[in-house]
Amino acid sequence: MADKITARLYSDTGSETGEITLDSEIFGIEPNVAVLHQVVVAQLAAARSGTANTKTRSEVRGGGRKPWRQKGTGRARHGSIRSPQWRGGGVTFGPKPRDYTQRTPRKMRRLALRSALSVRAADGKVKVVESFGWAEPKTKQAVTLLAAMGVEGKTLVVLGRLDEIAERSLRNLPMVNTLVPDQLNPYDVLWADTVIFTSETLGAAGRRASYEVTADDFVREDGEGEAS
Questions:
Q1: CB burial readout 122-145, b (16+ within 10 A) else e
Q2: What is the pLDDT of residue 209?
Q3: Domain 5-31+104-220 is in which class?
Q4: How many Cβ atoms from other residues are within 10 Å of residue 90's Cβ?
Q5: Domain boundaries, the chain
Q6: Residue among 32, 17, 4, 8 nearest 202 (CA)
Q7: What is the pLDDT of residues 121-153, one digit of tens each?
Q8: Which 3-state string (H, E, C) describes 132-150?
Q9: For residue 227, what pLDDT band results from cuts at 50, 70 and 90?
Q10: pTM
């Protein structure tokens, strides 16, 4: 576990204002690759609808009469036109509706999320915006913010439930995904090249509000320790 890990801190205009200390229990653990892989596979499996359905020869309509007599025609013998080798016949070993859900205990899911966040933090791909003080939703100001922060590629932005203006500003960008803290999951973290938190949502990452961001976590460019 890392002793101290930090992320760059930005204003809602993209100007860098300092850095913030990240919780080492969430962003600084040794990633458990095996658990991370298992949870991501389970998450993708659970997203499958499982509604694919094919009919066997017993479910296909017709085929009650033998197509031709057994011997003397010179052709291969057949008992039904609904057998699998006939066009329109039944399907052998085809898919049937099923549930693809895999059981993953809560501790595994939490460990996988902390592992994914630690991977991104170790690469310097976790950034924090103090808060979104935008007066109205505009995609242009979201583009300006990401460009000023030097963010490129796929981006995950973790917003508070009251950050509706920010969500509406970001949602039109094709490479940006927005989530609230209780929707945060390992797959979306690994999907993104950069993960952006707000100072409010940072404390809810990886656990249920047991870590609160305080003024002591912030280190300003001017050397002051208080968050304004």
A1: beebbbbbbebebeebeeebbeeb
A2: 39
A3: alpha beta
A4: 19
A5: 5-31+104-220, 49-99
A6: 8
A7: 999 999 999 989 899 999 999 999 999 999 999
A8: CCCCCCCHHHHHHHHHHCC
A9: very low
A10: 0.79
